[in-house]
Amino acid sequence: MVTCRFHFSIVIVIITHGVLWLSTAQSELAETGAQLKSVQEQLVKALADVARLSDELATSEQVRQQTDKQRQLLDSQLREAEVKLDAVQTETTHVARKTVDKLEQRVRRVVILCNN
After folding, report:
1. Can you tell me the distance from the alpha carbon of 116 to that of 95, in angstroms, rounded to the nearest whole number?
2. How far apart are CA 99 and CA 41, in angstroms?
3. 1, 16, 41, 58: which sits with the fewest CB atoms below 10 Å from its CB?
4. For residues 39 and 59, what is the distance between their CA atoms, to the nearest angstrom?
5. Is-above-0.85 flag for pTM?
């Protein structure tokens, strides 16, 4: 009888420890599940941020490309304007020289006429 009670006591102790272990395991499992849910939520937010940043990067790249094209066009227009300005300055200098030469000839004629 004592042996039976002893075995029964051991079984109760084993069951009690098993129940405690199971309770602890369930608690740890619940905590791990909560941590997993938190990590999943963070992952969803991170993925949304990545998608948003990817869109922003694509938009920035498009703006940069458009800006580069506009800059190249403006550079080309500036070079064309500089060439035209140089041509106009050259022509203006040429016309001014001719005008000065004609005026000098007229002054000489007037001087000659006045001296006669």
Report:
1. 32
2. 85
3. 1
4. 30
5. no
Q: Which amino acid is at 89?
A: Q
Residue 116 is classified by DSSP as -
Pairwise CA distance, residues 104 & 94, whole Å = 15
Spatial separation of the C-alpha atoms in residues 81 and 87, rounded to whole Å: 10
Owner of token pair 């740890």: 28
Whole-angstrom Cα distance, residue 42 to residue 39?
Answer: 5
The candidate with the shortest Cα–Cα distance to 85, out of 73, 93, 96, 75, is: 93
pLDDT digits (tens, 9 = 90+) for 64-99: 999 999 999 999 999 999 999 999 999 999 999 999
Give the integer Cα–Cα distance in Å for 50 and 43: 10
Structure token pair of residue 10: 């051991």
Q: Tell me the C-alpha distance between 18 and 23, whole Å.
A: 8
